[in-house]
Design a protein that fits this description.
three-stranded antiparallel sheet, Arc Repressor Mutant, subunit A, 6 helices, mainly alpha, 3 strands
């Protein structure tokens, strides 16, 4: 037996994986093989900003080690440029290269194309906004739970 809460958790995870699959297919269609779907999402989240890996981790809720690896690969493949901070030599800032900007623009066009098709799929802006409100409330709820101990596993001794 499942509950609406448990169904929502599973659906969120499934939707995220499915969207990553959509990005993977679109990259393959465009014959872009030197960046993966997760990296393309990170790239799109950087957009016009110049960020440190730490800032990117906080902004995108990515794992730090994964972001570092993905940033390294995107620099190697020419999607990102990195520069050491003149004030703190330990800090490295990244921004999109021209190649990265071109891909970012293509991803933005893909999102807009999807948005244009949403109402035809019965997903008008009002429904999406309502869903976003619920998801933000759930995000807030989960954030609050991290400060509260809740897992109580009874000892079998």
């Amino acid at each position: 037996m499942t509950t609406p809460y448990y169904d929502a958790i599973n659906l969120i995870e499934r939707l995220h994986r499915q969207f990553l699959d959509v990005l993977k297919v679109e990259l393959e269609r465009a014959n872009i093989l030197d960046i993966n779907n997760v990296q393309s999402m990170i790239l799109h989240n950087i957009s016009t900003d110049e960020l440190t890996v730490g800032e990117l981790t906080v902004r995108g809720y990515y794992l730090g080690s994964n972001v570092s690896y993905n940033v390294k690969k995107m620099v190697e493949n020419g999607y990102l440029m990195q520069e050491r901070s003149i004030h703190d030599k330990r800090s490295v800032r990244v921004k999109l290269s021209d190649k990265g900007k071109k891909l970012n623009d293509a991803i933005t066009r893909l999102y807009k194309k999807h948005e244009e098709k949403l109402s035809g799929a019965g997903l008008a802006n009002a429904r999406i906004e309502s869903m976003n409100h619920v998801l933000r409330d759930l995000e807030t709820f989960w954030g609050e739970q991290m400060g509260v101990g809740g897992l109580n596993v009874a000892s079998s001794q």
